[in-house]
Amino acid sequence: MGDTPFYDRNVLKVEILEKALSHVSFLGWKDPLILESLQDMNQDPSWSWRLFPEGVRDLLEFWSNSLDQEMLKILNKEGTSHLKIREKITLAVKTRLILLESHKDAARQAFYYFSKPQQIPLALRLSAKTVDEIWYWAGDKSTDYNYYTKRLLLGGVYSSTLFYWLKDESPDHQKTWDFLERRINTVLELPKLPQKAQACTKDLAHRLREVVGALRP
Asked: Does residue 162 form part of some domain?
């Protein structure tokens, strides 16, 4: 098992993630998922704690960060200089969700995992990182209170659109993209950002719990 003396740890992480995504529908996001993946790869099971010391919690974080980086690679290849910031934000959120299309059930299972109260801080942190990447890519240079306001509001747009997408069975998820357009146009009215941020500050964690509950069979 794993008799090669050297491994590129990041490459091995990617391979484990890919294998795990093929098993998660049956095993869920639970620590045995990593060991099952290593067994299928004929790898030393000790890689589980060496690469992901906190188990699937670390694996989910690695998946989210990988999706963020893939999203940016795709967006940076697009000709977007003519787009308004609102249009860039819409494109970025859509791109991020499209990357999940081949692993929709894994994304749904991730919501089940994040329904645990102790995992909500991680869920919010990962969402905040994704939102931050999107705003930076779109050209946001704010450093005052608008920095936090924009991210808070886009976090709400992203989470509600992800929820809609997980339930959407329309062709090519067209209903989701229509929903996203409406949410962007309604929420991201830049002159009204402070008022809107104040209105949604209190319910981000509550919304996550509601989303997860609604996704359960």
From this structure: yes
> How far is 26 from 186, CA to CA, in rounded Å?
39
Asked if residue 79 is part of any domain, the answer here is: no
Summarised one tens digit per residue, pLDDT across range 151-200 is: 888 999 999 999 999 999 999 999 999 999 999 988 776 545 445 544 44
Domain count, the chain: 1
Q: pTM here?
A: 0.84
- The Cα 216–Cα 201 span in angstroms is 25
Task: State which residues form the domain around 204.
Answer: 85-215
Does residue 55 sit within a domain?
no
The verdict on residue 25 lying in a domain is no
- For 21-52, the pLDDT digits (tens) are 999 999 999 999 999 999 999 999 999 999 99
